[in-house]
C-alpha cells in the first residue's frame, strides 16, 4: 500500500517554465513533508520541507504548497533550468525517522 | 563533515546467497535508516536504527535484517537472495532525536542478483 501517491511519473518542461509535482497522502498523523532531489548515481538530497501548520514555503525558485484539508502537497519549480533535470521524491513522516516516499517524478527541462 | 558512506558501491550475487552492506553515518548522527529503491516502487523503508536499537521497521520479510554498532555504523544483511532483491540500497543518517530530522543519504549500494 502506497502511503504517499505522487504524480506525474515524468514531466518535460521548457527552460524558464514552471514545473509542478503533486503528492497526496491519507494518514493525518504525518507531520513532516520533505521533498528530495536525486541525480543519477547519487542518493536523494533534501530540497525543501514543510510542516502541516504552514500552507506555503518558498526557498529560492522552489515552493511547497500544502493543503491540509485535501491532504495534498505540491512542489513548484519556478523558472525551471536544465540543471533541475532530476528525479524528485515527495515524502511524509510521523515525528521521527520513518519516512514514506512517493514513487518519484522524472523531470526533464529542455533548453 | 564527511558525508554518509556506503560500501561496497556495487555487488553482484546469485540467487540463494547472502549479502552484507555497510553504512557509515555522518559523525555525530545516531540514527541510520535503510531504504530499497527500485524503478517501479520508488524508495521503500526497510528499517531504522537509533543508538544500536531498531526503532522502526518496514514491511519486508525476515530475510532482511540489520544492526547498528556503538559507533553508529550500520550493516544490513539479506539472506537467501531472490532475483527481486536487485535494487539500489540506500542508507540515510540523521541526528535522530527530534522531530523533522533531515535525512542525509549515501550514494547507495547497487545490488544485482543473478
Would you spell out the secondary-structure blueprint of this structure?
The complex is a heterodimer of chains A (111) and B (114).
Chain A lengths: L3 E4 L2 E5 L4 E7 L7 E6 L6 E6 L5 E4 L2 E6 L4 E6 L8 E8 L5 E3 L3 E6 L1
Parallel strand pairs in A: 2-11
Antiparallel strand pairs in A: 1-3, 3-8, 4-5, 4-9, 6-7, 7-8, 9-10, 9-11
Chain B lengths: L4 E3 L2 E4 L5 E6 L6 E8 L3 E9 L2 E5 L6 E5 L5 E5 L8 E8 L9 E2 L3 E5 L1
Parallel strand pairs in B: 2-11
Antiparallel strand pairs in B: 1-3, 3-8, 4-5, 4-9, 5-6, 7-8, 9-10, 9-11
Structure in words:
The complex is a heterodimer of chains A (111) and B (114). Chain A is an all-beta fold and 111 residues long. Chain A is 0% helix and 55% strand. Chain A has no helices and eleven strands. In chain A, the strands form two sheets. In chain A, strands 2, 4, 5, 9, 10 and 11 form a six-stranded mixed sheet that branches. In chain A, strands 1-3-8-7-6 form a five-stranded antiparallel sheet, with no helix packed on it. In chain A, strand 6 and strand 7 (62-67) form a beta hairpin. Chain A starts with a strand and ends with a strand. With 114 residues, chain B is mainly beta. Helix content of chain B is 0%, strand content 53%. Chain B is built from no helices and eleven strands. In chain B, the strands form two sheets. In chain B, strands 2, 4, 5, 6, 9, 10 and 11 form a seven-stranded mixed sheet that branches. Chain B has a four-stranded antiparallel sheet with strand order 1-3-8-7, with no helix packed on it. The model of chain B has no long low-confidence stretch (mean pLDDT 92). The chains are: A mainly beta (111), B mainly beta (114).
